[in-house]
Amino acid sequence: MIVAEQKSLDEMKTLIGEAHNVLVVGCGTCVTVCFAGGSREAAIVAASLRMATKLDGDAAAVSDVTVQRQCEWEYLDEIAEQIKAADVVLSLGCGIGVQAIAEHFPQTWVVPGLNTSFMGLPTEQGIWAERCAACGDCLLGRTGGICPIARCSKSLLNGPCGGSEDGHCEVNPDIPCAWQLIYDRLSSLGRLDLLLDIQPPKNWKAARDGGPRKIVREDLRLAVEEE
Amino acid sequence: MAAQPYSNGYLVGSNLERVLRAGHFAVTAELGPPQSADAEVIRKKAALLKGCCDAVNITDNQTAIVRMSSIGAGTIVVQEGLEPVIQMTCRDRNRLAIQSDLLGAYALGMRNLLCLSGDHQNFGNHPTAKNVFDMDSIQLVQMVAAMRDARVFQCGEPFKGPEPRFFVGAAAAPFADPVEFRPYRLAKKIKAGANFIQTQLIYDIPAFKTFMEKVRQMGLHEQVYILAGVGPLKSPAMARYMKDSVPGLWVPDEFIARMEAAGAPWADIPKDQLSKEDKKARADAWKQEGIRICIELIQQIREIEGVAGVHIMAIEWEEAVRPIVEGAGLLPRPSVSAPTAQEASHD
Q1: Cβ separation of B176 and A160 shorter than 8 Å?
Q2: Quick check: B115 contacting A, CB < 8 Å?
């Protein structure tokens, strides 16, 4: 899932500025499950902003609404009237949600209420950790299902470097060394032979380095054209 | 791509390569460039190291702190009559920048290169920087070996003129985790094309002997020149820090105790009553003991089969190198004549 964190109330206040009609838009997918921008959080943020602006002496009218997925226009259409009526929309979606609103409502001023952090999973109650860097050329089949691009601090393909100690990365003792994890897993599965091959330099063209990415599925395009 | 030597048998013909191929126990040292544009610092450090090592490593923004570039400082070192080993990390440059810098380095007279991943920028003075890591150290070794032997850029295109020929080095950390994988990772670096290896600092001789035993079993010492990393301890605090806080560095308690003993005459004086002179005398006593320990380490390392030399890392203490090399009986440094221009041309 996409994991995000809320911005501080102060930053949200700065972002909404002098606006009077504020619409907080939550999202019912990833950011709901990471407790950053679901309907519950949208209601709390709206109430907090109402209180904060009132204390500042210029109470804003802040309402909230949550759609199932901010990253699809058909769900945004359901709240089109509310969005158009707002002076500013504070999106509690990920960065994709914010941009979906901006792209779909050219006249609307939309600002982010979250910092989109990474793609990951909850490892324990209240803890999320990064797992995928969307490099566009998945190599998990060579590393026992543990990603060195997302999880090694240096994204090494032929690790581990000399900074691995007691299972953690020298960058921070809270970071498990991805290559120690890979080593242990391949060892327990009897596949250490995979580590003897030199992995060649990565083709970063498939990653963000090749420029903004887009997928065109001709099979699906054809179906649209036939309609 | 198998390494293609010149017709005279040398890959590059650098002093370091000549000394190693002649079978001498090689000595390299480290020169840390300044955090400024001061060429004089390099000249002074070069003067301290001249004549007591076969080549001198110039670090590349070591510990991610911005310093004069390795190639820039290396150029001054060449002017001073010393042979540099350029260190190149993957942290700050992508494959374009690395290759371009190496063309320039070769044109400026550099002949040895140490390929490193590089310390993460988190450790340095620009922790908010974006890192690169387009390649890793093993891929870097492979690339520069192919630049020399296959005469191509990383993309496969041939050079439009002479290729850069470097004697290619890589690092090894015998005691970093997972320890049992370290000889195999060394083997990967050799397979990638490394000609020489400089190890992380070695203090634990029995552990290093165990590592070298595995290296010999795998026949790696016959495929690459291994230079064991050594460095003089400066104080008991430094020894403890290295033991406790630096991954892959094992410092036996015996050395910490010896460093403490060296400072014993001042141990009973309360901290606030230590005069400037006391502090200096104590620091000198520690340094003398640090140098003694380093000399002993070199003498023991020299007895280990498969070790081709030592790499002395006296960080910001280049003055220590000469007494260490002299004390270890490694002076004067050998002179192995350079290949002639004709010999150095390709067949």
Answers
A1: yes
A2: no
Interchain proximity B117–A156, CB inside 8 Å? yes
Shortest Cα–Cα distance, A138 to chain B (Å): 16
Q: What is the ipTM of this complex?
A: 0.94
Nearest residue of A to residue B178 by CA position?
A180
Range of the domain at A182: 134-210
Residue B286 lies in a domain: no
Asked whether residue A215 is assigned to any structural domain, the reply reads no
Question: Beta-strand (E) ranges in chain B?
Answer: 26-31, 55-58, 84-89, 112-116, 167-172, 196-201, 225-230, 307-312
- Say whether B136 and A165 touch across the interface (CB within 8 A): no
CB distance A43 to A70 below 8 Å: no
Cα B43–Cα B48–Cα B51 angle in degrees, nearest 5: 105
Structure tokens at B90: 């993957």
Rounded distance, CA A92 to CA A25, Å? Answer: 6
Would you write out chain A's pLDDT as a tens digit for each of its 227 residues? 999 999 999 999 999 999 999 999 999 999 999 999 999 999 999 999 999 999 999 899 999 999 999 999 999 999 999 999 999 999 999 999 999 999 999 999 999 999 999 999 999 999 999 999 999 999 999 999 999 999 999 999 999 999 999 999 999 999 999 999 999 999 999 999 999 999 999 999 999 999 999 999 999 997 677 76
Is the residue at B302 inside a domain?
A: yes
Cβ of A154 and B120 within 8 Å? yes
CATH of the domain at B108: 3.20.20.220
Assigned token pair, B334: 């050998």
